[in-house]
Design brief:
Structural class of chain B: mainly beta
Strand content of chain B: over 45%
Largest sheet of chain A: 6 strands, mixed
Order of helices and strands of chain B: EEEEEEEEEEE
Shape of chain B: globular
Radius of gyration of chain B: 14 Å
Structural class of chain A: mainly beta
Strand content of chain A: 35-45%
Number of strands of chain B: 11
Largest sheet of chain B: 7 strands, mixed
Distance between the termini of chain B: 40 Å
Mean pLDDT of chain B: 96
Oligomer: heterodimer
Low-confidence stretches of chain A: none
């Protein structure tokens, strides 16, 4: 079981907004380690879409945004498109693990 | 252009050792701050971090797999090696290598290889 938890699934109609939560503990997100988000389309490599809590790497659409507060973080996808379907993972560093931790992943379905 | 690519066997017998190689292009593990991690995803399960090595040779391991894992880098800085001993069918997964860059607050995996699917079966 992941030390960082995400909802198993979220869904939304095209054009709507979807929010994915990421809840950690005082040894990872709450310890001021950055949260990063990845999009994983089955059969392809995971892709970094948000780094350092809220920064979008070059080429990532502006409709992807994220924030962090306390021991939690959130990814927001505005104006959902069919191509956004896939799995989304948050990731941080954990001082107890002395390494990286991933959330359990959230499957996004665009209805 | 930075690319990573995993290579290794597609089938390993139980109790054997799995050896994987990550080949880097466009970046060197000799550069200060650079690191390479290994992550895997068993079928139907989430991503799991396994191990990481920094440019200076410092290495970190998942506590649950520490006794079975070993990570190393080539002196040339363009290859990273992962070995997993005494494999079990539960080790069947897609294995990825990914690049990190310097960060004091927990780096992200900025670039990923396409992954290599490994099956453990007799």
């Amino acid at each position: 079981q992941s030390v960082v938890t995400q909802p198993p699934s979220v869904s939304g109609a095209p054009g709507q907004r979807a929010t994915i939560s990421c809840t950690g503990t005082d040894s990872n997100i709450g310890a001021h380690y950055d949260v990063h988000w990845y999009q994983h389309i089955p059969g392809t490599a995971p892709k970094l879409i948000i780094s350092t809590n809220s920064d979008r790497p070059s080429g990532v659409p502006e409709r992807f945004s994220a924030s962090k507060s306390g021991t939690s973080a959130s990814l927001v996808i505005s104006g959902l498109q069919a191509e956004d379907e896939g799995d989304y993972y948050c990731q941080s560093y954990d001082s107890n693990v002395r390494g990286w931790v991933f959330g359990g992943g959230t499957k996004l379905t665009v209805l | 252009q930075i690319t990573l690519k995993e290579s290794g066997p597609t089938l390993v017998r139980p109790t054997q050792t799995l050896s994987l190689t990550c080949t880097l292009s466009g970046v060197s593990l000799s550069a200060t701050g650079v690191g390479v991690g290994w992550i895997r995803q068993p079928p139907g399960k989430p991503l799991e971090w396994l191990a990481h090595i920094y440019w200076d040779g410092d290495d970190l391991y998942s506590p649950s797999l520490r006794r079975r894992l070993s990570i190393a880098k080539a002196t040339s800085g363009d290859h990273v090696f992962l070995t997993l001993t005494n494999v079990d069918p539960l080790d069947s997964a897609t294995y990825y290598c990914a690049l990190t860059r310097a960060s004091l607050t927990g780096p992200s995996f900025d670039f990923w290889g396409p992954g290599t699917l490994v099956s453990v079966s007799s």
